[in-house]
User: What shape does this take?
Amino acid sequence: MANTKSAKKAVRQIERRTEVNMARKSRMRSYVRKVEEAIASGNQDEAQAALKAAQPLIARNGQQGVLHRKTASRKISRLAKRVGAMQSA
Assistant: This one.
């Protein structure tokens, strides 16, 4: 348990940040799921639109430290690759 005043404040801040980060991560997962569902259904236009909506959200989460920057970049890259493969197929 935190003993000092500053340690108690740090615990409060961590709890708040954890809650915010979990909400951001959940929202991102929802957007990624929409892209994956569109890819699975074979709907190319829907997949592109979903990717366009998800991409800035994933990148922002990477910048804000919710995800590591490279993890965010990798997620975007892999989703874009899968959507791009739909065009050629």
The chain has one domain: 5-88. Residues 75 and 81 are 10 Å apart (CA to CA). The first helix runs from residue 5 to 41. The helical segments are 5-41, 44-64, 69-88.
